[in-house]
Amino acid sequence: MVRAWIIMQTEPGTAAEAARTVGQLSGVTAAEQVLGHYDVIARVTGHDLDEVGRLARAVQLVAGVTRTLTCWQDGK
What we know:
Layout: E1 2-10, H1 15-23, E2 28-33, E3 40-46, H2 49-60, E4 65-74
Antiparallel strand pairs: 1-3, 1-4, 2-3
């Protein structure tokens, strides 16, 4: 199992809705609006890095998301 955090920047005024939308994606265990350089942080899990990568691409397609950074941790 691979755990990852996807950190997002969003267009002004869209962070709350982006967090709600991302939080509904399969594989996302939490998505929260935050303050600072980034606007939303999501915790995700996948069977492997390919699955996490597919999820990261899905997050990039969410309305309002302008930039992402994915940090992962191998669950071994």
